[in-house]
Write the structure tokens for this entry.
Amino acid sequence: MKKRFLSFALLALVGSAATAQKVEFEEFDLDNGLHVILHQDNTAPLVVTSVMYDVGGKDGDRERTGFAHFFEHLLFEGSENIERGEFMKIIPANGGRFNANTSQDRTYYYEIFPSNKLELGLWLESERMLHPVIDQVGVDTQNEVVKEERRQSYDNRPYGQILSAIGSNLFDVHPYKDENIGKMEHLDAATLEEFNAYFDKYYVPNNAVLIVAGDIDIDDTKDMVEEYFGAVKKGPEVVRNFPKEQPLTETRKATVYDKNIQIPAIIAAYRLPGQATRDAYVLDMISTYLSGGKSSVLTKKIVDEQQQALAVQAVNLGQVDYNIFALFALPQGDVTLETLLSEMDEEIVKMQNELISERDYQKLQNQFESQFVSRNASVEGIASSLATYYLLYGDVNLINNQIDIYRSITRDEIRDVAKKYLSPNQRVEIEYLPKKDDQ
């Protein structure tokens, strides 16, 4: 009885925290099309300056893959007013930290500074947009950096080729079929003119959103944003017309070899509607139900009770055009990959024919409430969410009301969406095997 009371108390606490934590923000556009979102939080003397560009691995010539990821590195090289190599020294020298990352859909740069360095953060990001130096020295330097990253994170890392294996077999015509990091031969063959043309097309103010969040004065920040970004020239509108994938109507099988592994894996991947659709939200809940935590259905059954797998996972990878829903498992001992796939399918069939229990449903709701609170618990997280919801979802208010979508999902909806999308004839089954010397 005491444990039950504590669980109800915790649920009440999480629920009240999620309700109370509304994120206030203000939006406006500069004349050059740069969208700006400001969030004021004076509880700590920190400020985040960040820019998210609407460019990712899917963009550009398919004979020049990896450009967006390459620019993630290249735009730290320097500018007309920042000496080569100084960009990454200035930030820590002023008490800040920084990072950048690239997905198939966007590129994100951010700095976190003491709030008295706000102007410095804005200047740095404006220099990246207004005065970058894109020359052969920088291209050659970052080419080696990217090659080393590929060796460490993809080529020589156990199971590092999984996402590539899924993308290349799940997509036929959409650029999601290509690796986000790109092919090294494409980067080697690219000319300086091609790099400059890519920058001019995508790294323009009207293809970006600027976020300033933290210990700021709204009016002063608006003035500084205008001062540092107002002079950036508007670029041509980016027009995308990616080819559409035909639905999968029969099981597609593939075999992929990895020289870095000893234990094989089984993967079942589905191509699904993009992350902003309601069904994608339901699939988030389905993936969490299947493998979100030690007490999840697949982990408890296949790993703990039956001891058939060393690891099992279901993931719903959110993307703008198509999501990827994937099941993954590593066998234990002599258990076959076919057995693991059958065991995972058994749980999906149950979801398709029966409602999950009320207890499991409430557990899911608790998990998503907790995730919601965590995302909005730091200025850094809020800045990233504001940029993401604006650029990739088209609705900044999701930072406050996305949780309401999850709350509104019913057990019947979970059953119906599982039935709609997660059938064997709608997927790619990949045997991911150790590579032998003669292969």
